[in-house]
Amino acid sequence: MSLRTAATFARRELRGGLKGFRIFLACLALGVAAIAGVGSVRSAIQAGLEDQGAVLLGGDAQAEFTYRFATDDERAWLEEIATEVSEIADFRSMAVVPGAEGSDRALTQVKAVDDAYPLLGAVELEPAMSLGEALDGNGAVMAPILADRLGLEPGDTFRLGDKDFTLSARLLTEPDDASGGFSLGPRTIVRSAALEGTGLLSPGTLFETQYRLTLPEDADLDALAAEAERRYRDSGIRWRDARNGAPGTAQFVERLGAFLVLVGLSGLAVGGIGVSSAVRAYLARKTSVIATLRTLGASRATIFQTYFLQVGALAALGIAIGLVLGAALPMAFAPLISDALPVPTLFGLHPRPLIEAAIYGVLTALLFTLWPLARTEEVRAATLFRDALSSARALPAPRYVVATAVLTALLVGIAMAFSGAVELTLWTAGGIIGSLAILVAAAFALRWLARRAAPGARGRPALRWALGAIGGPRDEAASVVLSLGLGLAVLSAIGQIDGNLRAAISRDLPDVAPSFFFVDIQKDQMPRFLEIVEGDAAVEKVESAPMLRGIITEINGTSAQEVAGDHWVIQGDRGVTYSDRPSEETRITEGEWWPEDYDGPPQVSFAADEAAEIGLSLGDEITMNILGRDITAEITSFRVVDFSTAGMGFVMSMNPAALEGAPHTFISTVYADAEAEAGVLRAVADEMPNVTAVGVRDAIDRVSQLLAGVSEAVRWGAAATLLTGFLVLIGAAAAGEQARTYEAAVLKTLGASRARILTSFALRAALLGAGAGVVAIVAGIGGGWAVTAFVMETTFAPIWPSALGIVIGGVVATLVAGLAFAWRPLAARPAQVLRARE
């Protein structure tokens, strides 16, 4: 028979409607919708960033320098290529408000602007006024959260460094805020000219300058970027243009979106179990039809093609529903999503995420329907009994096993290509496959334990019936444990990861972290600074070091990016210090420190772990641009640098003669009792207003806020996975309703009451849910440990309240699904049921 005949049979089968395929469609549609929805939101953000790139950047292009202003030559070239130039200095400082009972202080990120700012976009203030009017004289504008923290109202005075400023208005909207990346303090904007006399931008102070440019309409951005690289690659200039106006935000959105898509794939895997169960149950009901077709001469290929085409058509319908939902829901909720995001969005019909979701849906449908469909070949013409498929062998023909392996590899490969996160994708795929293997083994173990425990339940008939049903030949245990277990495992893993990250930040770090980082301490201020902090009995320890910032431009004469790729040490500027001898805590792993009073060619000691990641060896030369000057140093030692303590850690430490003559400041970490921190801060700030104090607890709170947002998004993704698992659970309960009806009829005939039968059903559901929950805990803790230890490289400890909640959730979910389909079996009359089975 031909494929056309199979298509005819499939079309006739589809006339029966969607009965038995509702869960199939729901699972597939929900998984595809989750992936399409996440992708659509990500594409909307990316489109918004591209559309508003110039506004977010603050100009058509930007040249950025670290801890210096542009030279006359650099400024002249920028003015030559641009129609307008705006100069901005960005740095941290302490905003101080004097009071009768002492001064109040808060960390702020200061932006010093010229008259041309902003080149693009608009600054929105409260009360409404122009930025020029607000910054007139010594005027300033401040973020509302900072003004409220300091109790300031428009017209009040506060101090930056050695100078008083007047708060003119609250800063509501800053058009280029997204381009600045992560900051520890709320924003304050002042005029650059007003900073004279503050002492805040002394030589060696930690600040950045940005030169925003508006370009002619015919400007060639690629050519300008290449020219900037050619002219100033050795002077530490960093060039950006409007095509990448907020790179940090774009990268964060891309990575978070990729992670959420992988979470969505977990949900699709859970849905795949429901798809497989639905196809298996449907084909089991079609055994007599298949046997009849075989009797009439239909070949195995024709039978397979018939149901393959039928299931394929239904899968296409499910995928189409998912794509419509994934495209429509983000647009429907676009106003709410846009208001919740700090970046521009451009919602619309974005084809790429829909295509990706469709590909995922097709591959998942193929992967999870192939084995049930392969079982149709095992139905012979003489096989006209109901459970033919359930008694078939465990594995289908070898070609289907090979096809399954190929589809799995293809799905993982496409996920790696689409997400761009190869390692994360492999971890996710390995976790899903491993979890499925554990759950399958757990389902068999649960059935075995139920069979062994059933004889011991004599005298407790409800429990014995429940154990007998779990250990019986039906695959209810496998369906429940697989569907609910995988959903709970994903949620459990995310709960473990989230809990351990929060513990690492909010619990572990404060035990070992300093109270403050003091930065911008001038060299002549160091003796008095140490006298203040070391003379305070509440201060436990003080660590100080000279600090400069440098950009690694070359490694052994080759561009650093060509050698190290996108390693974090190469991206942006890094802290550099100098010392004539290593501290007592320094542990050198390889090489030797330079002799005291060494005055030869520059030498550098490099962090050992980071050097190994980049591929550096003793004797290699690295070139750093520090304050516009290139310094090439030989690596003479590697040392352990532990950044996890939140203490002082420098990737690079050089011999003093190489850096001592460069303008620089000092950094100091102060460890003090929590109750004494305010006094230490006040003592330093009163005498040294130019010194900035960064509170470690404030930094922890900022990071915790970011993590809370990420965790919330991930939990929503996990909730979609769990919802899919619950749908599969409902499908399994619905599929077993006929069997439970017959079981209830037999038990009623033998004299069992409805209450006892209902108790048996409830016990069965609770035991299966508890089993799924326990297995999910094991898989979730294992997955959480792997991600925490190997990806995030922090310590792991099980979060038992979260784990207990998973078990309770599993029991409740199976009880709800099981009891929802228990009423009709209990209400059925035994005579009618048993007569129908004759």
Automatic annotation (TrEMBL):
**What are the record keywords, sorted?**
Cell membrane, Membrane, Transmembrane, Transmembrane helix
Q: How does it sit in the membrane?
A: Multi-pass membrane protein
Q: Where in the cell is it found?
A: Cell membrane
Give the matching Pfam families: FtsX (PF02687)
Q: Does the keyword Cytoplasm apply?
A: no
Provide the transmembrane region boundaries.
256-283, 304-337, 357-376, 397-418, 424-450, 761-787, 799-823
Q: Quote the cellular component terms of the Gene Ontology held in the record.
A: plasma membrane
**Top-level taxon of the source organism:** Bacteria
Q: Which residues form the ABC3 transporter permease C-terminal domain?
A: 263-375, 719-825
Q: What protein does this entry describe? A: Putative ABC transport system permease protein
Organism, as annotated: Roseivivax sediminis
